[in-house]
Amino acid sequence: MFDKLAEAVNADHNLVLRGKTCSLTLLIEIDNDEYFIDIVSGEIINVVSGQFLMRHWDLAIRASQATWSKFWQKYPEPGFHDIFAMNRFGHCKIEGNTKVLLSHIRFIKDVVSKPRFLGTGVSSNGKA
Amino acid sequence: MAKLDPIIGRYVTLDQGGKDFRIYFEENGSGIPLLCLHTAGAHSSQFRHLMCDPEITKNFRIIAFDLPWHGKSTPPVGWQEEEYKLTSTFYIDIIKNFIGSLNLKKPLVMGCSMGGRVVIRLAYELGKELSGVIGLEGSDQPAPWYDNSWTSHPNFENGDFCVGLVSGLCAPQSPDEYKWETLWHYYQSGHGVFKGDMHFFRTDSDYADNSATIDTELCPVYLMTGEYDYSCTPEATVETASRIPGAEAVIMREVGHFPMSENPDVFRNYLIPVLDKFKEGEKNEPSSS
User: Fold this and answer.
1) B chain contacts of residue A79, beta-carbon cutoff 8 Å
2) Contacts of residue A89 in chain B, CB cutoff 8 Å?
3) B168 vs A76: CB contact, 8 Å cut-off?
């Protein structure tokens, strides 16, 4: 799914334009699976997953598979429709360099919610 | 033929605290004055759909003004030498001043978000002079959903940050057209204005100790909140209503933090039955919550 995310983000000219000053490694955790998404100047250049020891990341969003599955629905239920809603209600944890998040808040939220608009790219169980 | 809105815009200059405040306001309709208060960092255009709804304007004179520093209202002379911070006292005073200046008799006051907060204080301070209050996405005390340190980040001052922060407060079902118009209002905001409004919303508007003193026989209170609002949650709204004897809470489905502008068609279906209770000749009394 994250391969399709990279394609979709990089093909979205306006999204890349909004992220042109944004470079970070975003960690998305789904249950115990970790996905490191390297973003450079608004484009996803690499996605890796697997077992790592202290691999670098800047910003992490950690949630269960069930939560991500709800978040990536076209019409998520209340409380699961935005990362800040999920954070407020304890459905996810946002950790790391919040300065990066605050500097690129709209871009990062758009990247994370992109699977919502990928159609076949979203598995029904939220599994990447 | 030109597609003209029926909305009329004008300016009025208010003297407050020895300073002149040139205030922009819009209005349409006739009947009971319905004074509308916009959200933090935005302006009165949020109410344009209501002002163009003949079913509402046939009974209500809908008026919305831009707070100083917002929309087309100018900040006072010398603004460049001060940091904008909205206080509870200034907010209340400018509303009272506006009502008095336009000679609005027994207005019904409806505010959203920080406007939904301030109507609580209006109700317990000015209740007998009002027809009632409607708090949209309103509660009687702050309940922050992000850390206070965020407001010190330089990006908190700019529009793109504000849009990113509040975009999730819209319901996913709200039409894109209206959602993005709502968010555009935040892009239009002056530098530091949203942050200044947050001073009121986050730290200077705890009315929970006084809300129980509201006499809803004199000033009926309705609190209407969208189920997707995680800034003022439905739970916070119901809790606030429970502290105000006679207040009624209405939770709106498939609506977020900006009901009047993000999904006006859904919102009107919730609002009109509430407004019907205020029509002239009908008893201004909410049912118990």
Assistant:
1) 230
2) 230
3) no
DSSP codes of every residue in B74-109? PPPTTGGGS-----HHHHHHHHHHHHHHTT--S-EE
Q: What tens digit of pLDDT does each residue of B177-228 get?
A: 999 999 999 999 999 999 999 999 999 999 999 999 999 999 999 999 999 9
On whether any CB of chain B is under 8 Å from the CB of A79, the answer is yes
Nearest by Cα to B119 from B141, B143, B92, B85: B92
ipTM for the complex? 0.90
Return the bridge partners of B249, or none.
Answer: B223
Map out the domains of chain A with their CATH numbers.
2-119 (3.30.1050.10)
CA distance B182 to B194: 14
Residue B12 tokens read as 């009025």
Q: For residues B15, B95, B64 and B167, what is the CA-based torsion angle, rounded to 10 degrees?
A: 120
Residue B289 included in any domain: no
Q: Which of A71, A82, A86 to mutate to test the interface with B (most CBs of B within 10 A)?
A: A82
Q: Structurally, how many domains does chain B consist of?
A: 1
Q: Are strands B32-37 and B8-16 parallel, antiparallel or unpaired?
A: unpaired
Please give the structure tokens belonging to residue B7.
């909305």
> Is B161 within 8 Å of A79 when comparing Cβ atoms?
no
